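Give me the fold.
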Amino acid sequence: MRRVVFNQKGGVGKSTITCNMAAISASNGLRTLVVDLDPQGNSSQYLLGRGADEIDGTLADFFDQTLNFKLNPRSTGEFVHQTPFERLHLLASSPALEELASKLESRYKIYKLRDALDELGDDYDVVWIDTPPALNFYTRSALIAAQRCLIPFDCDDFSRRALYSLLENVEEIRSDHNRDLEVEGIVVNQFQPRASLPRKVVQELIDEGLPIIEPYLSASVKIKESHEHAKPMIHLDPRHKLSQEFIALHDSLARKYGT
């Protein structure tokens, strides 16, 4: 199963959700790969800490290789890195992805990520793809390569306004490039149940028939500690309320699709 975590708005928790869900997949015994397509590299930093800056062979190197013919190109597997967590691997980001995007788009390399993940298909049970906060070459590549799309939503009015165009964009990718792509659901993140506005906004989305997934993920300062220590919540504090919410969310998706 390949899932892309996507929202065109920044700061909604894409990397946090990607890494925590992937860490749970791995802890459940699944061979798990995280693909960090965001040039900011938040997922790479989250899973590797300072070691993310020392990687030899990032996604930028992989994409650059597709632009330049080499007699002995590196296989996709050579760009995959082990994280400190068992069964959890990473295709790491790099700031160089930013400058490569226009070259890749002009050379129509939009299917290269899908082909690479097909090549790795027998090595992993589940793939989680983190994306930039924009509908650009890398996001389109991810949507073409994935089977399911999770949309983080942070109960903000700006997020709500962007949600409708986002759903239209995903549907366009599905129609034109990837018939297997489905919006798996909207993940409510940084939820404050005692505040009236988040409750009101979420309920309105439910009333509109949008696929809101339960449980909602609580707002917690503990997640900042998780980022700082480069440990997903299940490894930092498995009994924490937010850890249990991540686990329940993961289990809900697993019951639906088996992974």
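Residues 90 and 140 are 20 Å apart (CA to CA).
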